[in-house]
Design goal:
There is one protein chain. It contains two helices and 25 strands. The protein has 369 residues and is mainly β. A hairpin with a 6-residue loop joins β17 and β18. The longest helix has 5 residues. The N and C termini lie far apart (45 Å).
């Protein structure tokens, strides 16, 4: 790897509203219009897991969007690969709870509604995170679940309008108390005012979020900036940008113990093709100490969908191929060393985006079936 620079790619032309905005990755789902009614409980026919090994104490497992489409678990050495939810693949964007006992994910039901569900590591008995939203939030498309550090809450973004099919009118960042389903709104942004928000991730102390702040001029997507929202005595602050404009829909994550944020510069949606580079950067939450981790050029490898692991590495989607079709799962250290391809494309499938998350190692009773 050549010596990294410390500049961000500027925003280019819009690459399409859906792909440039929310970047709903990994599947080519159908997008029927959303119902005004609350979604029904997930049907057993579409969520039956395959026979699976136990998820034992002290074991690391990667949850990812794999092939066949749906959510799969696999150990970092490539063993134990099995589907826990799907196909058809309407289950996407998983996130492990901090104790490794549950997985939150997004599911689109037969009406087209998009909701957050929670399940155990075997995919048994999926449950809606919120069974009935307040009236003002009931018809939103909910996305991007993120567990709080103590596992008691989940942050999520709701979009007014199907983000797979149109530019949403507004985005609502909300916190859901897992035990009760109570919803607290952190803030709203309207696309007519030029902004939406995506991909919230908690700070280690749960007193701030890092998000991708999406910029628009009319229907044209102008790029995003990394922004931080902090809890104050008066409530939650407005998003404060900490980077310049990043080329396209950057994914973000906050280190589990340090004031260090990782992001990619040009995320890729399902079946999107681009020659623009996508690299990994880290930055402090005040915008200082911007550091480039990877140094991929135009038309070469791409680094997207990064999240931190409990030991301070980064797990991400490493993309190769002339048409951005070959996704793999890789690990890398925060200084750019130790790049390791953990899962090859045979586990993920062509033109699929894995959205990988590494299970925290825990010491508790096994989740044997």
């Amino acid at each position: 790897m050549s010596s990294p620079t410390h500049t961000l790619a500027p925003a280019r032309h819009a690459v399409g509203l859906v792909l440039g905005l929310v970047l709903l990755v990994g599947v080519a789902c159908s997008s029927p219009s959303a119902s005004e009614n609350p979604p029904s409980e997930p049907s057993a026919a579409s969520t039956q897991p395959s026979e699976a090994p136990a998820v034992d104490d002290g074991e690391e497992w990667i949850v990812f969007q794999g092939s066949p489409l749906g959510l799969s678990l696999i150990q970092p050495d490539g063993s134990g690969n099995h589907v826990i939810l799907g196909p058809p693949g309407d289950q996407v964007r998983p996130d492990w709870s901090p104790d490794g006992s549950q997985i939150a994910y997004v599911q689109r039901d037969e009406t087209g509604a998009q909701q957050i569900l929670i399940t155990d590591p075997h995919g048994t008995k999926p449950q809606l995170l919120v069974k009935e939203y307040p009236a003002k939030l009931s018809s939103l498309f909910w996305d991007n679940p993120a567990w709080s550090p103590d596992g008691s809450r989940i942050a999520t973004v709701g979009y007014e309008g199907d983000p797979q099919a149109e530019l949403p009118k507004r985005s609502v960042l909300a916190i859901v108390t897992v035990a009760s389903g109570e919803v607290t709104v952190v803030g709203e942004l309207e696309s007519s005012a030029g902004f939406l928000r995506s991909f919230p991730r908690w700070s280690p102390a749960a007193d701030a979020f890092v998000i991708s702040l999406d910029h628009f001029k009319g229907d044209e997507y102008l790029g995003s900036r990394i922004a931080v929202i902090r809890r104050t005595d008066a409530g939650w602050s407005k998003p404060k940008p900490i980077t310049k404009v990043v080329a396209g829909g950057p994914r973000v994550d906050w280190h589990p113990t340090d004031d260090l944020i990782v992001f990619c510069t040009n995320d890729v949606g399902g079946l999107q093709v681009t020659d623009e580079p996508s690299n990994l950067f880290t930055v402090r939450s005040d915008g200082s100490k911007l550091s480039q981790i990877t140094d991929y050029g135009p038309g070469k490898e791409r680094a997207t969908q990064p999240t931190w692991t409990a030991d301070g590495r980064i797990i991400f989607d490493h993309i190769t191929g002339a048409n951005d079709e070959r996704g793999t799962v890789a690990f890398i250290n925060s200084d750019g060393s130790g790049l390791e391809i953990a899962l090859g494309n045979e586990f993920i499938g062509e033109s699929n985006r894995p959205h990988p998350r590494l299970r925290p190692v825990v010491r508790r009773a096994s989740w044997a079936r």
